[in-house]
Amino acid sequence: MKKRFNRKSFQKKISSLNRERTKHISTLIQSKQMVHGLLHEVYRKCGKSACKCAHGEEHGPYPALSVNKEGKQKIVMVKKNDAPVVIAKSRRYRKFQETLVKIRKINKEIDRLLEEIKSATTESYP
Ligand SMILES: [Zn+2]
Asked: Which residue among 6, 23, 38, 55 sits deepest, i.e. has the most Cβ atoms within 10 Å of its Cβ?
């Protein structure tokens, strides 16, 4: 005896996930120029012994990008003049990455549901 399953409920769930995925994909297609790396704030000491930074009040924050290069995490300082543009591009990059994660989660969920349908509708012979 195969267990019964509700086709309508699967149809509804998968269609809804598909719509959500299509929406996410559209935002990725529309994405403007990005920069590789996640935004980071860096504080620094200037090295002068009489400065406030010598007593813990470091200078900053300065914008920087945390970049993964060949498996290594690197911090790249952003030039002051580039900051507005690079920060905006980096925010887009983060958003893009987050949306990719959402799409992959939906893909997995759809795949899981399809596997469920397969097992509910497949029998062994004889
Ligand atoms: Zn200082």
From this structure: 38
pTM: 0.82
Distance CA 52, CA 6 (A): 69
Amino acid sitting at position 76: V
- Residue 48 DSSP symbol: -
Q: How remote is the CA of residue 46 from the centroid of ligand 1, in Å?
A: 4
Distance from Cα 49 to the centre of ligand 1, integer Å: 8
pLDDT in tens, 102-125: 999 999 999 999 999 999 999 999
Residue 1 has pLDDT above 70, yes or no: no
Q: Does the bond joining 63 to the residue before it have cis omega, within 30 degrees of 0?
A: no
Cα 84 from Cα 104, distance rounded (Å): 31
Instruction: For residue 40, list its beta bridge partners.
Output: 64
Q: What separation in Å is there between the alpha carbon of 61 and the centre of ligand 1?
A: 13
Cα 52 to ligand 1 centre (Å): 6
What's the gap in Å between 111 CA and the centre of ligand 1?
Answer: 55
